[in-house]
Amino acid sequence: MTRIALVTGGSRGIGAAISEALKAQGCTVAATYAGNDEKAAAFTKETGIKTYKWNVGDYEACKAGIAQIEADLGPVDILVNNAGITRDAPFHKMTPQHWHEVMDTNLNGVFNMTHNVWNGMRERKFGRIVTISSINGQKGQFAQANYAATKAADIGFTKALAQEGARAGITVNVVAPGYINTEMMSTIPEKVMNEVILPQIPVGRLGEASEIARAVAFLASDDAGFITGSTLSANGGQYMS
Ligand code: CAA
């Protein structure tokens, strides 16, 4: 049976790797993106995966976008909440704007997307929700009070919703990546990366997006029906919870 999968932020970075892994697993995949039309068009051209543009922080945009995808491809069986941003600053320099931008995308986005696929999954008695959290939601991180708050919230959200979805055939899980070799790392000063972050990773390297995608594809598969409410950490041994 071909499953329909929707990946937010699915045309770049970890999201692109997830979209491709789900496609390789036999899913029909739709990927959302927020801003970069050129990259999204190139991704569609290269992979054949359709891309749709909207801001996951906007509830009505999520509702309309999901309705469009369901009209184009069919009901969404798998939702991967991957879209996320950073606005890093030490707390004494963090502005309300830094705080709210991260809340809107990383946390409200998870609500907006999940809420708009939930009833359909309940009616069809099947669903897979996988949310991309972060090691920094598990252990905290200097300059990320905003980001860490949203990524910790993903875990509470997932544990609550897993209980509600269980009888309806819906599993709800988290994948918590460590430091992965994507564009997001380019905001970290080189000195901080080399002297602070890399020495804390026991495997001695950043992770690859494909290594996160494989974990997501497993949790999204029909085979993973007994796994729900879990947090799968993929961080090279940097933090063991
Ligand atoms: N851990 C420990 N110390 C850190 C640090 C970190 N990750 N990042 C910065 N610092 C230190 C700096 O080395 C510097 O110390 P010194 O003054 O002793 O040199 C100090 O904090 C910087 O303080 P400033 O007040 O000057 O900070 P700033 O206003 O210039 O802000 C910054 C700089 C935004 C904090 C920048 O250093 C930065 O981006 N750091 C990286 C933060 C980080 O690790 N973010 C994680 C991104 S990865 C991610 O989010 C993906 C994921 O899920 C894993």
Automatic annotation (TrEMBL):
<dbReference type="GO" id="GO:0018454">
    <property type="term" value="F:acetoacetyl-CoA reductase activity"/>
</dbReference>
<feature type="domain" description="Ketoreductase">
    <location>
        <begin position="3"/>
        <end position="183"/>
    </location>
</feature>
<protein>
    <submittedName>
        <fullName>3-oxoacyl-[acyl-carrier-protein] reductase /acetoacetyl-CoA reductase</fullName>
    </submittedName>
</protein>
<dbReference type="InterPro" id="IPR011283">
    <property type="entry name" value="Acetoacetyl-CoA_reductase"/>
</dbReference>
<dbReference type="InterPro" id="IPR002347">
    <property type="entry name" value="SDR_fam"/>
</dbReference>
<dbReference type="InterPro" id="IPR057326">
    <property type="entry name" value="KR_dom"/>
</dbReference>
<dbReference type="InterPro" id="IPR036291">
    <property type="entry name" value="NAD(P)-bd_dom_sf"/>
</dbReference>
<dbReference type="GO" id="GO:0032787">
    <property type="term" value="P:monocarboxylic acid metabolic process"/>
</dbReference>
<dbReference type="GO" id="GO:0005737">
    <property type="term" value="C:cytoplasm"/>
</dbReference>
<dbReference type="GO" id="GO:0042619">
    <property type="term" value="P:poly-hydroxybutyrate biosynthetic process"/>
</dbReference>
<dbReference type="Pfam" id="PF13561">
    <property type="entry name" value="adh_short_C2"/>
</dbReference>
<dbReference type="InterPro" id="IPR050259">
    <property type="entry name" value="SDR"/>
</dbReference>
<keyword id="KW-0560">Oxidoreductase</keyword>
<dbReference type="InterPro" id="IPR020904">
    <property type="entry name" value="Sc_DH/Rdtase_CS"/>
</dbReference>
<comment type="similarity">
    <text>Belongs to the short-chain dehydrogenases/reductases (SDR) family.</text>
</comment>
